[in-house]
Amino acid sequence: MIARLGTSVVGALRSARDLWLVLLSTLAGVIRRGGAQGELVRQMHAIGNKSVLFVVVTLGFIGMVMAYE
């Protein structure tokens, strides 16, 4: 049981490290190119604005459940 838990923790840590490395390499590429930074900001803005409706609806349902409880 402990071995399975250890394997799961090590796997999670490796995944977190891989995601961190992807983030760092993406940011390094943006900084090196300079001009692509505007594109990154544009895409982040578009993704953020498109997810607002989903977040509001989800929070609305969560609020209704909490009020009911």
**Rounded mean pLDDT score:** 86
Number of helices: 2
> Would you tell me the structural class of the helices and strands?
mainly alpha
Fraction in beta strands: under 5%
Low-confidence region ranges: none
**Radius of gyration based on Cα positions:** 19 Å
The run of helices and strands is HH
Shape: flat
Task: Give the total of beta strands.
Answer: 0
User: What portion of residues is helical?
Assistant: over 70%
Largest sheet: none
The span between the termini is 37 Å
Describe the fold and architecture.
There is one protein chain. By secondary structure, the chain is mostly helical. It has two helices and no strands. It has helices at 2-33, 36-68. The longest helix is centred in the last third of the chain and has 33 residues, at 36-68. The model has no long low-confidence stretch (mean pLDDT 86).
Give the tags.
single chain, 94% helix
Task: Describe the structure concisely for a colleague.
By secondary structure, the chain is mainly α. It is 94% helix and 0% strand.
Q: Which helices and strands occur, and which strands form pairs?
A:
Layout: H1 2-33, H2 36-68
